[in-house]
Design goal:
With about 150 residues, the protein is α+β, with helices and mostly antiparallel strands. It contains 4 helices and 5 strands.
């Protein structure tokens, strides 16, 4: 995808804060690894999600997937500009984490619907933020264009 949206410093900080706030609502009684995600859309709206674990581990949901499902439920089919992710061991702001492989694919689908290559902000402690394009995290991604 050639459409790589850019966000300003204020939007970047707000999106990271939204991911951190979403992390506070995570339900992770088994792993104690809490994650929050925030999706920024072209119209300025933000949709958040947190991880939700289940005693049957395979049924657990990642924060990014919850946020994308919430966005789809709200009728959003494209316009994804950026995603921020904040997480780690419960109560610890450590190293930045990136979306897992499944979430990278889910985020790719959301971005592909609007033809964008979203910016991924991985927020850690001490203000450390890693910025990468989703296409860097998921090169040669499979998506809607292949189903043609």
């Amino acid at each position: 995808m050639n459409n790589a949206p850019v966000i300003d410093e204020t939007a970047r900080a707000s999106l990271i804060a939204a991911a951190r706030a979403a992390r506070e609502t995570a339900y992770a009684p088994y792993s104690h690894f809490t994650v929050g995600a925030a999706l920024l859309f072209a119209d300025g709206s933000v949709v958040t999600g947190c991880n939700v674990e289940n005693a049957s581990y395979g049924l657990s949901l990642c924060a990014e997937t919850v946020a994308c499902a919430s966005a789809a439920h709200a009728g959003r089919r494209g316009g994804l500009v950026a995603v921020a992710v904040a997480g780690g061991p419960e109560g610890v702001d450590g190293e930045p984490i990136t979306p897992c492989g499944r979430c990278r694919q889910v985020l790719h689908e959301q971005g592909a619907l609007g033809g964008t290559d979203p910016l991924v902000l991985s927020a850690g402690g001490d203000g450390i933020v890693i910025e990468e394009r989703l296409s860097f995290l998921l090169p040669r991604a499979f998506g809607p264009a292949y189903l043609g």
